[in-house]
Design goal:
The complex is a heterodimer of chains A (148) and B (424). Chain A is α+β, with helices and mostly antiparallel strands and 148 residues long. Chain A has 6 helices and 3 strands, in the order ααβββαααα. In chain A, α3 packs across α5, α3 crosses α6 and α5 crosses α6. With 424 residues, chain B is of the alpha/beta class. In chain B, β3, α5 and β4 form a beta-alpha-beta unit. The two termini of chain B are 36 Å apart. Classes of the chains: A alpha+beta (148), B alpha/beta (424). β1 of chain A pairs antiparallel with β13 of chain B.
Amino acid sequence: MTDNGKAERKMYSEKVMDHFNNPRNMGEIENPSGVGTVGNAKCGDIMRIYLDVDEAGIIRDVKFKTFGCGAAVATSSMATELVKGKTVEEALQVTNKAVMEALDGLPPVKVHCSLLAEEAIHAALWDYANRQGIVIEGLKEPVADITA
Amino acid sequence: MTDKRIYLDNAATTRVAEEVLQEMLPCFRESYANPSAIYGFAGEAKKAVGIARERAASLIGAKPNEIYFTAGGSESDNWAVRAVAEGLGGKGRHIITSKIEHHAVLHTCQYLEKQGYEVTYLDTDEEGKVSPEALEKAIRPDTILISVMAANNEIGTIEPIARIGGIAHERGVLFHTDAVQAYGHIPLHVEEMHIDLLSASGHKLYGPKGVGILYCRENLRLAPLLHGGAQERGRRAGTLNVPGIVGFGKAAALAGETMQERGAREMALRDYLIDRVLAEIPYARLNGPRQDRLPGSAHFCFRFIEGESLLILLDQKGICGSSGSACTSGALDPSHVLLAIGLPHEIAHGSLRLTLSAENTREEIDRTVETLKEIVGRLRDMSPLYEDFVSGIELHFGTDERRKNDRQRKGREKNVQRKSDGSF
């Protein structure tokens, strides 16, 4: 292990590094129930979430793709873990704070990544709701551009 | 866990040369006297500083009394720009610099703008070169200083400073050059290049950290940086950093002796690295010119991926590189240099700087290229930008109902044209 590596690991928690190195649920879903893409090329993070929701409204599968830094990848990965197996209503309650806590925190400058992850989930849920012609209570139309 | 470390961040700092260290060591416990003291024991330290000053001067065709030792390149840049501004503020308040300078120059200029100075920030071409013609047009009757770097620290572009200096002198304007990356790596001559002030740093040329020089032409009255002592001809008070200064001098002497051979070796390795990356990694771009670049400097953008992720994964394979990426510095904007050469944000975010030393080997470059291929591929598999690129769609944000023809897209993915010349 190099010295630089140690410094980098200090910047990110072990959990962030684990999710960056071994991202959970990375990929695409064919014929998804909903897809959402959020981000901002200017600050260098773009996240896309795919949902596979069953008839009972339970998230059967979820995948992500992310262009961004280590924290962006880790927050996407963690967000997919937190919503998998949940109902869409429960998934809506997964906040950026929950994502951050599950990752044992983020450096202050990376907090916006967790906001982006929350927003990506919301965007995918919004797409799902539109396709189904339903309204998920409490879900607002996603903001395309997040700069925290 | 990893193989031996591959250090490719020599523009950030270099490893102190063994000969440099050996010459520094006696300054700590043997000739440790304060060179300003009167007794004979101080003579050794004083003599050592004198030799270092001669060596530092001789590398750029200057006189020893034109060299001021500082704590490094940033200090020298700050000092040069501020001293000229303050010294000539009565004559004029206009400064010309470029958009791709190091922040040590740019932020000093911004500070001076708050003090009522006007600064023109020159554009560069797409290779990062400042145009001497544009510079000449920017000169006004109240222009007091032109500051253009000798070579860029990020993308390695060598600037036409001899022409810039010539124009400055024809028009009676002082010329400062930030030579932190160039000093000891490419030939510089203060007379031939019409340089009035020049900044350099020890640790970029196998010398120690915490020591640099400001060259200032002898007929100029340089305003003092630090008050409180007669050191450095009353311009920079404070006990001399004798080990650092001695190390700087030795590094400068070695750099002069080895420049040609070392430069040729680095250049050959650098070109090998650039050729392989551009040929073997699709959608890779070389930033800066192919020819007029620092011997050890290579700088790439890889489309569809982000620099910090790339750096962390490289680090895990024992490879030390750097990036102008936003996330690395903690700011949200990508490198000002990459934006100045006209790269869009999302491409500028995917940057990687690899800077070689004479110690690097061809085997290390081979391992680096193989590792890069793997990592870039892995990050692209994860990238929604790449996914959209291969499916031939423009990226839209927000909700997304575009992927109805997944099969068709997968088909296209196989047919993606890979450009071998590295352009996109």
